Amino acid sequence: MLVNGTRKDIPFVNTVKIFAIFLVVLGHLSISNEIYSFINIFHMPVFFLISGYLMSGNSDSFFIFTKKKAKALLVPYIFFAFVTFFFWYFVGRKYGNDSLDGQNTSVVLKHIIGIFLAIPSKDYLGFNFPIWFLPSLFCAEIIFYGIRKYFKKVSFLICLIAFSVGVLLNKMQIFRLPFGIDVSFFALLFIFIGNWLRKNNLVEIYICNKKLIYKIFFTILFGVLTFYISHINSAGGTISMVHRMFNNYFLYLVGAFSGILCILFLSNCIPNHRLFHFYGRNTIFILGFHLMCFSLLKAIQVFVFHIPVETANGGLFINVMYAIFTFILLAPVIYLINKYVPFIVGRKKGIL
Is 241 exposed, middle or buried (0-12, 13-18, 19+ CB in 10 A)? Predict the structure, then answer.
């Protein structure tokens, strides 16, 4: 499971997930276009690849697997959707950019529809756009499970075809599909690669077992390469997997896998720590609640310290601090939900 838990025998995965979710949080702040493009070229592919990496064998029936994934991904999605919608309806839409659109009845109605259709569009999920990822991942995982279970010998070919279908839908400018299925077509390729890496122990052999000096070297190498590719590719416009904006598909894929390798090497440079274990197993909370934390932090900045919110625009340092404080604010929320009501995020007690 990608965002709801990590196997104990793969400690570096916790670190990978923390870096990935930190980039997600940072990417939703007012950062520069260069940093935004760098993050967007690989931060979603990392999550999909790790999802495939953690996917177990196909001993379960398709129905049982789907039921497990619905509990792990759709139940938390519904929880986050309703909590953040009510927060937006009673608080968020009265301030900032939402103070105009939020008073429009049609906007409110679209957001309500968006909860049930899970269309990855700010028109429908504007109150908490990042949660589009959960239903999209659900679709991608069950599709991949079915492919691997019933069409194992041609699974890679089917995933390539699915990616091509995604490209075709994009070129035809097909309207956004419910549950982020149009994004799932692209995700299948990354899930396949992640599952293939795990099956052949390639990460352990070629990354985990390398000397630290080599890990640092390749972290820098792939980091620079990813930044360079994202800079070139973003010249053609915004890069965004969720918005199906890739510009040059070849450059996007090269940048995505380069960024993934950067994160994998970087994560293996850092010793395992209980803090990484805590946040790594609970990235789903950060995904679901970080926009609410932004609202709280901005309110403190404006109403307590009387600092204009525009001061954060484009500044990397202040936005990194915003992201760090978001993690800190969510720590007690993570602890309390896991301790007392873990079922609302599809898990049992004792998973921290």
Answer: buried
- Distance between CA atoms of residues 333 and 342, nearest Å: 11
Instruction: Count CB-CB contacts under 10 A for residue 129.
Output: 18
- CA pair distance 95, 91, nearest whole angstrom: 7
Whether residue 4 contacts residue 264, with contact meaning beta carbons closer than 8 Å, is answered with: no
* Domain hosting residue 71, numbered range: 11-345
Find the helix packing angle between 155-171 and 133-150, rounded to 10°: 140
Helices in 155-234 by DSSP H: which ranges?
155-171, 181-199, 202-203, 212-233
Q: Cα(1)–Cα(63) distance, rounded to whole angstroms? A: 17
Q: Is 33 among the domain residues?
A: yes
Are residues 254 and 301 in contact, defined by beta-carbon separation less than 8 angstroms?
no
Q: What is the pLDDT of residues 245-270, one digit of tens each?
A: 899 999 999 999 999 999 999 999 99
| Structural domain includes residue 5 | no
pTM, to two decimals = 0.92
